[in-house]
Design goal:
globular, binds adenosine-5'-diphosphate, alpha+beta, 10 strands, Phosphatidylinositol 3-kinase Catalytic Subunit, Chain A, Domain 5, 296 residues, 2 domains, binds magnesium ion
């Protein structure tokens, strides 16, 4: 299971996002971005945050620490905003906390160069877990301490909203992958994507997936954990048409689909003094790069 903390104060809502996460202080003296079980997509979004986030961490990506945060709805009593009071009332008990990265900024392709191999790895990860929420409109990537941090995986694993159709999604490509925020940074996909696939796919073992699922609180499951392990393992250990789709030469472009980032959003060559994000190495075991010291 994830580490457990208890919320002591509701500080402020984070209004950029759609799910109305809140900043909360906890008994460990930490400040946590809290995703509430009573918000829109319910507890499955919290579960997706843990599975996709911890899988990413195990594969070497930077992900702020995740905890289970116990919330007493009474903490919202003095909140003037009715919507927040209601959200807290609908979210007693175990919610999801993500370590708040103070001073972090949203990834901006104009200001930061990301190494092509790292960009391709993030694209590969999002394709594996069907994370449709990392577009150039909504990057869900934070820059903090010269690293690119992956946040907001609540929309990943969307087939778990209807397991009767999940088998049909096993080969499915990432919807709207041509709008992925790191696609322009990924260089020649014919080179970088197979390299990402070769580095990451063998690392996603059944054992690793079981370890990741074991971090999810029992009360959050509507389907057995083995369903998630089986679905992800089948997807990653097969012939992976969801990868080859992205290598097809008839790749949709802005001119023929009306989508994709505008020209001015395409990454510029790195300039001196600007951060340059490179690729992580894949650790041997799940959890090796858990950033226990990630609080600044
Ligand atoms: N760990 C974090 N540290 C600092 N800021 C964060 C963190 N997590 C989220 N934020 C900020 O809060 C916003 C909303 O959070 P996000 O997880 O993207 O929720 P939503 O599901 O509502 O989009 C982000 O766009 C970012 O600006
Ligand atoms: Mg978001």
């Amino acid at each position: 299971m994830l580490r457990n903390v208890t919320a002591t104060r509701y500080a402020t809502p984070l209004r950029e996002g759609g799910s109305l996460p809140g900043l909360m202080e906890a008994d460990d003296l930490g400040t946590w971005v809290v995703k509430f079980r009573g918000a829109g997509q319910g507890v499955k979004a919290l579960l997706a945050e843990v599975v996709a986030g911890e899988l990413a961490r195990a594969l070497g990506f930077a992900v702020p620490e995740l905890v289970v945060i116990d919330v007493d709805p009474e903490l919202g009593r003095v909140e003037p905003d009715q919507e927040i009071q209601e959200l807290l009332r609908a979210s007693p008990g175990a919610n999801l906390g993500m370590d708040y990265l103070p001073g972090s900024i949203t990834y901006d392709p104009l200001a930061f160069a990301v190494d092509a191999s790292h960009a391709a790895r993030v694209l590969w990860l999002d394709a594996l877990v069907l994370n449709v929420d990392r577009s150039w409109r909504n990057p869900n990537l934070l820059l903090w301490g010269d690293r690119l941090w992956l946040i907001d995986h609540g929309a990943a694993l969307y087939p778990h909203h209807d397991w009767t159709r999940a088998t049909g999604a096993l080969d499915r490509a990432l919807p709207r992958w041509d709008e992925h925020v790191l696609l322009p940074a990924a260089g020649d996909l014919a080179v970088t994507l197979p390299a990402a696939d070769a580095a990451l796919a063998p690392a996603v073992t059944e054992e690793l997936l079981r370890n990741v699922l074991a971090l999810v609180p029992d009360g959050w499951f509507e389907a057995d954990a083995s369903r998630y392990v089986d679905w992800l393992y089948t997807r990653v250990s097969g012939s992976r048409p969801w990868v080859t789709t992205m290598l097809a030469t008839d790749r949709p472009t802005r001119s023929n689909r009306g989508t994709g980032p505008p020209e001015w959003l395409r990454p510029q060559p790195p300039r001196p003094g600007h951060a340059h994000i490179t690729s992580p190495t894949v650790p041997d075991r799940c959890g090796d790069n858990r950033p226990g010291d990630s609080r600044g």
